[in-house]
């Protein structure tokens, strides 16, 4: 599928802050791997460093030290993280490692004994201590003024907004709770204040993220502080007042999610739900240690669409989970036919060191996993293509992500999150467009995952 340009991918983000270093100013480079939650951590670390007088270097070679924020969710992600660490050591030499893979320091130091320090996820103070030791700060209070919006690794017009850390679920294939701990929600007033600053700095789209967005506030008993209650419905309503697009990610289909749908119908938040269903067969879901009520989920989906016909539903699934039979997989395909999800991702099951699913019997052979993945994606692609074809001739708002040298604008509709979903392309009339503009287009062509359109009023 076509995706947003590589430089917009959050999982390939390097610090690219335009600034001229003053004489004697220490500088730090950074590469951020993995999910948007890790990206938020990286932004927070860089913001603190910038406030202390460090410059942010876009290149390893020109920096006094490099921070690598790692991902450790899958073995393939671990390998990518080790490769990034090795590259940073080769190009720079002074490397500090943080992030999810940092929860396994021996794994990192065993492969790269030259790293200066290893810290776990969201251990901001430890990262700063390591930087201070490697590169002592040399602040100039008359020059090093922290920009109010902080340092961001995403393009200026959208930003991830992390509302909690950790997760209370115990899915057998996942080790996130082991790495990031149990659910720990941020106070609602702090989230809203951060969102206000982002919007004031020019952000047009807020992407709300956490490991379990719909559980937000449960751990702090939905406390209300300074007029803001820590409940996802209340928080969505508060964020919806700020004038930016608000997009919700990683929402578990709890019953109270239905209270979000009227906010989407009213236009307060985007009519978009990213829900990790993972599978549809009851037995498979039980082996995953996940809620096993796929039929009720279909009823919920129908109710959501009745209340908000424009809603876009995105999800991810795992095929080839240990013990998955052909019958169970066929149930998933049949469920997809009924659910008609708009945006779908699929992964072949992969053992993760420390996950309980590793010990399950009847692991599925690699060739069967591949074959099922191909069948699943063929189904998902056909659904996507049919749904997008229905949009031809309609008018919609899009946000501009990039304009290339030929004047082709890469945009996203309200149904498209950055990187993971499709795009809408405008091939002509873009002379007066700028990145971050929200404009009206009429769709005139559709593909399997992407749309093409014409600007209205041009």
UniProtKB/TrEMBL annotation:
Essential cofactor(s): [4Fe-4S] cluster
UniProt binding sites for [4Fe-4S] cluster 2: 167, 171, 174
Residue ranges annotated for the MTTase N-terminal domain, each copy included: 26-136
Catalysed reactions listed for this entry: L-aspartate(89)-[ribosomal protein uS12]-hydrogen + (sulfur carrier)-SH + AH2 + 2 S-adenosyl-L-methionine = 3-methylsulfanyl-L-aspartate(89)-[ribosomal protein uS12]-hydrogen + (sulfur carrier)-H + 5'-deoxyadenosine + L-methionine + A + S-adenosyl-L-homocysteine + 2 H(+)
Listed GO biological process terms: tRNA modification
Main subcellular location: cytoplasm
EC number(s) given by UniProt: 2.8.4.4
Residue positions binding [4Fe-4S] cluster 1: 35, 71, 100
Cofactor remark from the record: Binds 2 [4Fe-4S] clusters. One cluster is coordinated with 3 cysteines and an exchangeable S-adenosyl-L-methionine.
Classification via Pfam families: Radical_SAM (PF04055), TRAM_2 (PF18693), UPF0004 (PF00919)
Top enzyme category: transferase
Subcellular location(s) of the protein: Cytoplasm
Family per record: Belongs to the methylthiotransferase family. RimO subfamily.
Function recorded in the entry: Catalyzes the methylthiolation of an aspartic acid residue of ribosomal protein uS12.
Protein name in the entry: Ribosomal protein uS12 methylthiotransferase RimO
Organism of origin: Roseovarius albus
């Amino acid at each position: 599928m076509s995706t947003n340009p590589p430089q917009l991918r959050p999982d390939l983000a390097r610090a690219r802050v335009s600034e001229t270093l003053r004489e004697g100013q220490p500088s730090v480079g950074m590469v951020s791997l993995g999910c948007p939650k890790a990206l938020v951590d990286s932004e927070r670390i860089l913001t603190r460093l910038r406030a202390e007088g460090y410059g942010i270097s876009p290149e390893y070679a020109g920096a006094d030290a490099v921070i690598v924020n790692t991902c450790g969710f899958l073995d393939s992600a671990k390998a990518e993280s080790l490769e990034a660490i090795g590259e940073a050591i080769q190009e720079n030499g002074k490397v500090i490692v943080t992030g999810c893979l940092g929860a396994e320091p021996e794994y990192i130091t065993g492969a790269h004994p030259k790293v200066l320090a290893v810290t776990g996820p969201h251990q901001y103070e430890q990262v700063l201590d390591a930087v201070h030791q490697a590169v002592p700060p040399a602040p100039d209070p008359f020059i090093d003024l922290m920009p109010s919006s902080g340092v961001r690794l995403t393009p200026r017009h959208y930003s991830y907004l992390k509302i909690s850390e950790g997760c209370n679920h115990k899915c057998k294939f996942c080790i996130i709770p082991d790495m990031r701990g149990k659910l720990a929600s941020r106070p609602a007033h702090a989230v809203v204040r951060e969102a206000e600053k982002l919007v004031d700095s020019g952000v047009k789209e807020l992407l709300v993220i956490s490991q379990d967005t719909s559980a937000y506030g449960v751990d702090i008993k939905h406390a209300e502080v300074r007029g803001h209650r820590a409940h996802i419905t209340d928080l969505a309503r508060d964020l919806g007042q700020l004038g930016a697009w608000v997009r919700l990610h990683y929402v578990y289909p709890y019953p109270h999610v239905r209270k979000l749908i009227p906010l989407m119908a009213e236009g307060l938040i985007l009519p978009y739900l990213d829900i990790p269903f993972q599978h549809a067969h009851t037995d498979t879901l039980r082996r995953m240690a996940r809620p096993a009520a796929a039929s009720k989920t279909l009823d919920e989906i129908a109710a959501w669409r009745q209340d908000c016909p424009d809603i876009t539903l995105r999800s991810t699934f795992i095929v080839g989970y240990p013990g998955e039979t052909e019958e169970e997989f066929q149930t998933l395909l049949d469920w997809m036919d009924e659910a008609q999800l708009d945006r779908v991702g699929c992964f072949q099951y992969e053992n993760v060191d420390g996950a309980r699913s590793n010990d399950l019997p009847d692991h599925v052979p690699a060739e069967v996993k591949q074959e099922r993945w191909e069948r699943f994606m063929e189904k998902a692609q056909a659904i996507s293509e049919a749904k997008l074809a229905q949009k031809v001739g309609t008018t919609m708002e899009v946000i501009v992500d990039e304009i290339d040298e030929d004047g082709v604008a890469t945009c996203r509709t309200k149904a498209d999150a950055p990187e993971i979903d499709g795009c809408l392309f405008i091939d002509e009339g873009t002379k007066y467009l700028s990145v971050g503009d929200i404009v009206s287009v009429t769709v005139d062509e559709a593909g399997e995952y992407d749309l093409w359109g014409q600007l209205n009023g041009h």
